[in-house]
Specification:
Radius of gyration: 16 Å
Mean pLDDT: 92
Oligomer: single chain
Structural class: mainly alpha
Low-confidence stretches: none
Number of strands: 0
Strand content: under 5%
Helix content: over 70%
């Protein structure tokens, strides 16, 4: 049942993204920023935690999940280090994911021959 809930949650997030791509003039980059920001705002309001409890990885893996991790890290940083923790907590909470993205992006660039769009 956990896999089904994750599939439904992640699928709904993707459906929302696809609708935004199809029905608006928003670029992919703006949708990315919108989703990450929405994850931060919903976490700050205490709503995204309920989505994560229901959907598990279906809620934490897509882009709003990155915003969720940033916000959770910032909140934890403030509790531990005061106001300066708001700046460092989010980065510390997401450092592993950011490092993985850099490493895998580099490996992809080295292993595959990029071609320009025509």
């Amino acid at each position: 049942m956990e896999y089904i809930r994750a599939f439904i949650t992640g699928g709904l997030i993707c459906v929302i993204g696809q609708i935004l791509i199809d029905k608006t003039n928003l670029t992919s980059a703006r949708i990315l920023v919108l989703f990450v920001t929405l994850g931060v705002v919903l976490t700050g309001l205490g709503i995204y935690e309920h989505i994560v409890e229901f959907g598990g990885a279906g809620a934490t893996v897509p882009l709003p999940g990155f915003g969720y991790a940033l916000a959770k890290g910032a909140i934890k940083g403030v509790k531990e280090k005061g106001i300066l923790g708001a700046f460092s907590g989010g980065i510390m909470a997401t450092a592993g994911g950011i490092a993985a993205a850099i490493v895998f992006g580099y490996l992809t660039a080295v292993l595959f021959d990029p071609k320009s769009k025509k």
